[in-house]
Amino acid sequence: MTTSRPGEPRRRPGERGDLLDPRCPTRQLLDRIGTKWTSMAVKVLAEEAPDELRFAELRRRIPGISQKMLSVTLQSLVRDGLVARRVEPTVPPAVHYRLTELGLSLERPLSALRVWAETHMPEIDRSNQLADESPPN
Length: 137
Prior knowledge:
Elements (H helix, E strand, L loop, with lengths): L24 H9 L2 H13 L4 E2 H7 L5 H13 L3 E6 L5 E6 L1 H33 L4
Antiparallel strand pairs: 1-3, 2-3
Helix pairs in contact: 2-5
């Protein structure tokens, strides 16, 4: 079985794609989850797994996120099958979110990225500071 569509080059499962190609699975994933809000939502939900969190609690635990941005982020995660949404028929409705198994599998790579950032951001910050202090060419 291939992962290509008609007219596309045939690719075997597990074969790496071309990050410059919009059809590349890695690029498609980064387009979906590459925002700070998405990674923060996954992190917060992973901390509670397998339990659920209500919308207001998620918003409280993600500093700086607006209600609209959290709503858009969660809708995207639900659509992609990374988050499950459950609505209690109360007035007002109580909406609960939890990571699916697929969403839980994303936490480890995001955690590795956080470790890399914590290790290397001082170097990147120093490089930026040096570039800012250097006279223009």
